[in-house]
Here is the input.
Amino acid sequence: MKIEYDTKQPIYLQIMQNMITRILRGEFKPGDKLPSWVDAGLEYGVNHNTIARVYMEMGRLGLVETRRGEGTFITQDKSALLKCHESMKEELLNKFFAEMQLLGYSPDEIFQSFEAYFRAKIQERLLNQESLL
Here is the structure.
């Protein structure tokens, strides 16, 4: 899975964010073994030492554990995964809010836009459910 790398951010952080997203989406499940450094390096088109750093950083966050001679595995600690999930949500909301403010929107306008967006999405979901019945 090659990704387009942003030159403004270290590659290992971009890969780590991609892997964490994949974990939170369920592509990798708690207890699953991650690809070896070499295999992941080939998958992401980077040196295996970059993947070693990714796994080390993810280990520091409590998301993976390395077992000597066996490999690196997704933690089974659901609280660590939930903490990461909440952290990513907060980060995305902060980015959204900052970008909207850069565009000149006030906090009230941002809230109103957000509220209108979600009301439309809820309505859309309800209409889709009704059409399935």
